[in-house]
Specification:
15 helices; rod-shaped; mainly alpha; two-stranded antiparallel sheet; Multidrug-efflux Transporter Regulator, Chain: A, Domain 2
Length: 313
């Protein structure tokens, strides 16, 4: 066929792999106007129709609707702008699909009730502002009234999950569990107690800037003893406990008297709630932070050591 040859719809179907029905539809919609007709009225198309159909198929494969395809072909819309807008729309769809996949994966693993599954889905599909409000309310419950100290600004930020715009499945699953945990009234009460205890220790000692709390003191002193295999109820642990109490007394500005071990024990028992550590682990996953070190062994050691000595007393 030479350059003046006109193609029939059947010719175009054979060249492009599209069906005759599809080509006729595009022609009827004004997307592929014929260049002429035969005396019998049959439509004929020029060589440019092949390239035009290739472009139409590409745009349709990318998900553009027919009105948009028509505007692109008729120069009513610039292709780069259309592509950018469509890419953005696809990004939203992909994110939604990932969220749904994460929920279904979590459902398959956890086997929730229909009501629990509904809650999981709602938590996963919250907008960024809705997520911030939900966690903000939890943090307000935890720190409200005790966060006048500037140090709590950093603590609040360190406990705030930031689910990325394009999260991995495990981040979505971690967010769902973290959000559920933040709504647990008993967990909220326990976290509030920890915050109040920490605030009370800081208030007694005045404004000395950033200082370690009870957990940090125990961690630094008990860690080596735990690694060395020292039994918390043994006499060998006496020196470790004594050092911990001296340091804790200095931190909270209290005398190292008979009331101090009970006070420290109450702080360690509140901090040892496994849900607190679970929250921090989930937070690390959501925010893409390195995994947090488990403080459970250190806290358990401190609790056992103090209880044994209080019982003896």
């Amino acid at each position: 066929m030479d350059g003046d040859t006109r193609y029939s719809i059947g010719d175009l179907a054979r060249r492009t792999g599209l069906t005759v029905k599809a080509i006729r539809f595009y022609s009827d919609q004004g997307i592929l106007p014929p260049s002429g007709r035969t005396p019998a009225g049959h439509r004929r198309y020029g060589i440019e129709a092949v390239a035009r159909l290739d472009l139409v198929r590409t745009l349709r494969d990318l998900g553009l609707d027919l009105p948009t395809v028509r505007r692109v072909l008729h120069r009513g819309a610039r292709l780069p702008e259309v592509a950018a807008a469509h890419a953005e729309a696809l990004a939203v769809q992909i994110r939604t699909l990932r969220l749904r996949r994460a929920v279904l994966t979590a459902v398959a693993r956890r086997g929730p009730t229909p009501e629990e599954m509904n809650l999981m889905h709602k938590l996963a599909m919250l907008s960024e502002n809705e997520r911030r409000r939900l966690i903000g309310e939890f943090l307000d419950t935890t720190f409200g009234g005790v966060d006048a100290d500037p140090a709590y600004d950093g603590i609040r930020r360190s406990m705030t999950p930031e689910l990325p715009d394009d999260p991995e499945g495990e981040q979505v699953e971690a967010w769902i569990e973290l959000a559920e945990l933040s709504q647990d009234p008993d967990f909220r009460a326990r976290m509030r107690r920890v915050a109040e205890q920490h605030a009370a220790d800081r208030a007694r000692n005045g404004d000395l800037g950033v200082r370690p709390d009870a957990v940090a003191v125990v961690r630094s002193e008990v860690g080596p003893a735990l690694a060395a295999g020292v039994d918390p109820v043994s006499t060998e642990a006496d020196a470790v406990v004594a050092t911990v109490l001296v340091r804790y007394a200095r931190v909270c500005g209290r005398p190292d008297d008979e009331e101090l071990p009970s006070r420290l024990l109450a702080r360690l028992e509140a901090a040892a709630d496994p849900r607190r550590e679970r929250y921090l682990r989930l937070l690390s996953v959501v925010n893409g932070w390195p995994g947090t070190e488990s403080l459970t062994p250190v806290l358990d050691w401190g609790v056992r050591a103090l209880r044994a000595r209080l019982d003896v007393g």
